[in-house]
Specification:
Layout lengths: L3 H5 L7 H15 L9 H15 L2 H8 L17 H9 L21 E7 L1 H6 L1 E12 L15 E2 L8 E8 L2 E8 L8 E2 L12 E12 L8 E4 L15 E7 L6 E3 L2 E9 H6 L1 E7 L2 E7 L8 E4 L15 E8 L6 H13 L12 H12 L4
Parallel strand pairs: 1-9, 11-15
Antiparallel strand pairs: 2-7, 3-6, 4-5, 8-9, 10-11, 12-13, 14-15
Helix pairs in contact: 2-3
Length: about 375
């Protein structure tokens, strides 16, 4: 039997991409539809069989260990170990027993994960989005049959469609018969005389496709949305896996998020803090009025109820917590400075004495700020 690496014209350390490139080049050259060479058909089958083995990491490793037909791993009394004993008595049939039947080429596809960036409003209130998904899809040429159009899989001549072959081996327990996957069809029971050139016999290809998704209200960074049957299509047209969309929320220039609550800082003039005022604030819901009580101090928190993000798994919304920052006026003109001096005289604050607060007061202030002043 010819060496598969020599058949494809690649070295034994060739990469998977080198093997695929070599196969495609030979397949186009030897395919019966494009050449009149009478020997091309046999050579094409040989090239296809070589590629089917070397393109699969497990099959390639088995072949490199001599597991291919005619290799050093076959034959009576060779390559027998403890696993063969276990197979003989507990595995794929014992003495005189048959195998478990051929393995189906059709397998479920893997799940896929992509990340989607959303802004704060979209995360808070939800929305519709079209995304581009790069996954395995059904091969448009063979429609999942893995074969060139007009051809079909053929029953394996070695195992006669069983997917396994039996061999007698000598052990400490005497002669036993074991059942192993067929090295020619690799357990499928069929071979591909003419693998599809577009998908190289997998029944699927990679493609980018648009997908409309709904983003639920209340999602946050790390939230995953499961879309059933939107993942990778399986081999030989097998059912697709699921697609998981992981949300990543972009930073907002004004608001930060803590759970379903939104936080921001509002700068208020010193006079507004002293006299009280109603100050407009642009929120995710539009303009809202923030009521600043007379004598408000910097660091105080004003809560706007139900102005935060919607709850993901229940009704209602979080709150908007507005921290006040009192702005001390700068660059006073003469008239403004005189007015402030007169105010200081009236209040007896021309030479004010500092007022100390207990050390623990700061701790409670931090706790109040941490929990939104509630």
């Amino acid at each position: 039997m010819s060496d598969y690496y020599d058949v494809l014209g690649v070295s034994r350390d060739a990469s998977a991409e080198d093997i695929k490139r070599a196969y495609r080049k030979l397949a186009r050259k030897l395919h019966p539809d494009v050449t009149s060479d009478p020997d091309a058909g046999d050579r094409f089958k040989e090239v296809s069989q070589a590629y089917e083995t070397l393109s699969n990491p497990d099959k390639r490793a088995q072949y490199d260990r001599g597991g291919a037909p005619g290799g050093p791993g076959g034959g009576f009394g060779q390559g027998f170990g403890f696993s063969d004993i276990m197979d003989a008595f507990f595995g794929q049939g014992g003495a005189g027993g048959g195998g478990r039947g051929p393995v189906s080429r059709t397998q479920r596809g893997q799940d896929a994960l992509i990340r989607v960036d959303v802004d704060l409003a979209e995360a808070a209130f939800g929305g519709e989005r079209q995304i581009q998904v790069d996954t395995a899809v059904l091969c448009p040429t063979c429609k999942g049959t893995c074969c060139q159009p007009g051809t079909e899989p053929a029953t394996c001549d070695i195992c006669h469609g069983q997917g396994s072959v039996q061999r007698v081996v000598r052990s400490l327990l005497g002669q036993v018969m074991t059942s192993q996957p067929c090295p020619t069809c690799h357990g499928f029971g069929t071979v591909l005389p003419s693998p599809c050139l577009e998908c190289t016999g997998e029944g699927r290809v990679r493609a980018r496709r648009p997908l409309n998704i709904r983003i639920p209200a209340g999602v946050d960074t790390g939230t995953r949305i499961q879309l059933a049957a939107q993942g990778e299509v399986g081999t030989a047209g097998g059912p697709p896996g699921d697609l998981y969309v992981e949300i990543h929320e972009r930073p907002h220039p004004v608001f930060t998020r803590r759970g379903d609550d939104l936080l921001c800082t509002l700068e208020v003039p010193m006079t507004a803090a002293a006299l009280g005022a109603s100050i407009p604030l642009e929120t995710l819901d539009g303009t809202e009025e923030v009521d600043v009580r007379p004598g408000a101090q910097g660091g105080e928190v004003v809560t706007l109820k139900q102005k935060g993000a919607e709850h993901l798994r229940s009704a209602g919304r979080g709150d908007l917590l507005v921290t006040l920052e009192v702005a001390t006026p700068r660059d006073l003109d003469d008239e403004q400075e005189e007015l402030l001096r007169r105010l200081a005289e009236v209040r007896g604050e021309v030479r004010p004495a500092g007022k100390l607060s207990p050390a623990h007061h700061g701790v409670f202030s931090k706790l109040r700020e941490r929990f939104g002043g509630r």
